[in-house]
Amino acid sequence: MKILDQYGKPIKKQSLGKELARPSLTGVRQVWGSASVSNGLTPERLATIFQQAENGDHQAYLSLAEEMEERDAHYGSVLRTRKLAISGLELIVESASDESKDLDLAQAIREQVKRPCFQEDCLDDLLDALGKGFSVVEMVWQRGEFWQPDFIWRDPHWFTWDREAGAELRLLDENNLVDGIALEPHRFITHKPKIKSGLTVRSGLARMAAIAYMCKTWTLKDWMAFADVFGLPLRVGKFGRGATDDEIDTLITAISNIASDAGAVIPESMAIDFVESSKGAGGGAGMFKELAEYLDSQLSKAVLGQTMTADNGSSQAQAKVHNEVRIDILKADAKRLSNTLNRDFVKSFIDLNYGEQAHYPQICVYVPDNEDLELLASTLEKLVPLGLEVEQSVIRDKFGLPDPEQDSKGDFVGKLLGVQTATAPNHAKAFNMRQAQVPDAMDLLENEVLEDWEQVLEPVINPIETLVNKAESYQEFLDSLPKLLETMQPNELIESLALATFKARGLGDGAK
Fold first, then answer.
1. Which of 263, 273, 269 is closest to 246 using CA atoms?
2. Is 98 helix (H, G, I), strand (E, B) or coil?
3. Residue 443 CB neighbours (<10 A)
4. pLDDT tens-place string over residues 312-349
5. Tell me, what DSSP letter sits at residue 308?
6. For residues 153 and 111, what is the distance between their CA atoms, to the nearest angstrom?
7. Closest C-alpha among 71, 126, 79 to residue 301
8. Is the pLDDT of residue 1 over 70?
9. Which residues pair with 236 in a beta bridge?
10. Longest dimension (CA), the chain
């Protein structure tokens, strides 16, 4: 079984356990960070960083994105909220079909998804792409019962974009310091959320939030300077006309030290007054606070798509509307992450262990719909017996339930609800169809009563028909009817109705 690389050459499986993007102390891939770019950030400097990134040099931009997440508590919080909202979702593995081979492939992927290194490392590291625009996780394959990878996050500083279209991600390497080298297939998972169209380096949330971050940094700096000047009361020292220079120096020293020492010793003839600034609690401080809160709300909109659950919750109705917008973003993030995992991980794992396939199982990052599942179940209970045909996989997806597991023979591994014995899917479908077609007890009773209705009603109906034919007028028919009722024999009809009533009453009591 040969697996080919991007050049059509067979992959040497003995090299799958080697780290391709390994860092080094002296090479182009070093673990120690570069100098800070956010210190003293100005509009001119920010514009330069953006321009460099657009021209293919995104090193400064990536450093800025990382520092923003570390230094701005609000931006870091809302970005982490968006990441956790995705990583906390359930992963469902769907088979390509109900054939035993496809079910086996899906089960193999399902076992990989359950691994802690996949749930806790791979997914969280891939979601780093939300802020920076892309993220890369290297798969270092280990050979045991089968090939399975360890997942190692790689610093985005170690990658660059092709010069022609800016779309192909390449690994920086000593063999090509300018353009980098192509990423080997089956070795890397590259996630690009594509928050906006265009160059990937321009689609990260950090670029959208950078201006608000810069302005907020200035705001906080000015606010601290304002508080330093106006936050403390003005200390005024008073001395008499006959005060000597030494006494004045003593008063000045006392005023200078009183803020830290909380006490001072001065002559009795002197005094220190504390004058509160009218601006200390007025418009000056409020302006800085309002500006900082406004910038935080813009960051919330950029990252979460709403502000109600992040900044305030004054209106429940408004919060529901904003929450729906956030769910839309969550679904989009989940869909793109699913596509990345299926393209880079699922296909690689299946190809290395089972060979190339016509169809592959799919990982779905499942976002539950705000749907009344109880109403759906009740509706299906009523309509399926009437002939409504619904795919089981569709219903499982709505309830977030995985496909039943099967062994190599096609038998179910566990006991299934609604199926009395472990059978293949086509057997289960046939059983459910037969079950849906079986009439209930009341239908059977109705059929039993109507089976001989003509014979039971003949002793009652025939005499009436004879009288109708003999009577010459309607009045003659009415006058003769009482005598006819005295001679009529309805015993068989009465017994039949009484027996049916008794059975119906028993069935009703038993169903309670």
1. 269
2. coil
3. 10
4. 544 444 444 345 447 889 999 999 999 999 999 999 99
5. H
6. 21
7. 79
8. no
9. 273
10. 149
Q: What b/e string do you get for 250-271 counting C-beta neighbours within 10 Å, with b at 16 or more?
A: bbeebeeebeeeeebebeeebe
- Taking alpha carbons only, the member of 12, 23, 337, 16 closest to residue 150 is 16
Confidence (pLDDT) at 439? 53
H/E stretch holding 275 reads strand 271-275
Which amino acid, one-letter code, is at 291? L
Q: What is the mean pLDDT of residues 441-463?
A: 74
Crossing angle of helices 43-54 and 205-230, rounded to 10°: 170
Closest CA to 85 of 397, 342, 306, 374: 306
Give 365's DSSP letter: E
> 206-227 as b/e, with b when 16 or more CB fall inside 10 Å?
bbbbbebbbbbbebeeebeebe
Q: How far apart are CA 21 and CA 171, in angstroms?
A: 7
Which run of H or of E encompasses 135?
strand 135-143
* Polymer length of the chain: 512
As a whole number of angstroms, the distance between CA 171 and CA 179 comes to 8
pLDDT exceeds 60 at position 396: yes
Encoded tokens for 408: 């190599």
Q: Tokens representing 37?
A: 């770019």
Does residue 323 contact residue 313 with C-beta atoms inside 8 Å? Answer: no
CB 480 within 8 A of CB 466: no
Find, among 250, 281, 284, 280, the residue nearest to 264 by Cα: 250
Residue whose entry in the numeric block shows the structure tokens 């990423």:
183
Go through 65-94 and write b for each residue having 16 or more CB atoms within 10 A of its CB, e for each that does not. Answer: bbbbbeebebbeebbeebbebbbebebbbb
Q: Can you tell me the distance from the alpha carbon of 22 to that of 15, in angstroms, rounded to the nearest whole number?
A: 14
